[in-house]
Amino acid sequence: MVNQDDRDLVRVATMYYKEDMKQSDIAKQLGFSRQLVSKYLIDARNNGIVDININSSSAYSVQLEIKLQKAFGLKRAAVLDTSYLKDQEVEKLIIQMAISAFKKDIAKAKKIGVSWGKILRRLTDEYPYVNQPDTTIIPLIGGMGSDQVEVHSNQIAYDLSRKMRAKCKYLYVPALVESKETKRNLVENNTVKDVLEDGKNVDFAIVGVATPFSKNNTMTKIGYINQEDIADLAKVDVVGDINSRFFDESGNEVSCRINENVIGIDLQDIRNIERVCAICFEEEKKDVLYTAIDSKIINCVAVTDELAEYLLSRKETELNN
Prior knowledge:
Largest sheet: 7 strands, parallel
Number of helices: 15
Shape: elongated
Structural class: alpha/beta
Distance between the termini: 49 Å
Number of strands: 9
Strand content: 5-15%
Strand order of the largest sheet: 1-9-8-5-2-3-4
């Protein structure tokens, strides 16, 4: 014979899941407390009386998003299901997904910081036309030379501000200079100093994640770094960079010429920003991405399901060691 407690579990579960009744209304009708109704619903799931199935193709990717946020303390995660996608489709779709996932955060931001690179260029190109006249777009680093100007922070800031009908500031200095003295002279300029200070105080930042050891590294292609620089970076155990700030496996900026002479906000400045977003789909960047997330340089991500699985697996392994 089924006892009364089991019948109460079934009754509460049926009213809640089948009749779409609120917990407060169930409590009132049955003469239970709201806390008891909540307990019964939990017990019904734990005892197998209720078996919840989510019938959506997004179920697995959403599950990964929730796990990423919990494992790394992320403020937002978006995961692209690539199981039925062709390689050439992934980049376009992950950018569209990122725009959809972060659009509300961007809409709330009064100051948006942008770094540089191809992924930011593509995001800017895909971003829809909106009206945010009270928002200001701010570059987080200087220019990268005369080649591929379209991926430079100032150009990205300008183009994104046009898309958003927002205001824009510019950082009219090179990203990398020859000496500490040259850097010191440039950053003491009041206009440059003001833009760098604004960059430290944005509400939302969009940055790229890169590794200097990739064959497709943009910095190498545009002459920002050469093979000698790459060899020097390898000697100090660099895993990658964000905003052209090179860091090791612990997420610490390494001591090297580039870090000393780059003009832009540093990694600690980036960590202090409320929301820092990165988009990543390349398998070759998985270790850089892991370090950037685990060391809290970034706290919002848009990644593929394969990268999400790698991040979670590596985190679990490190926790168990």
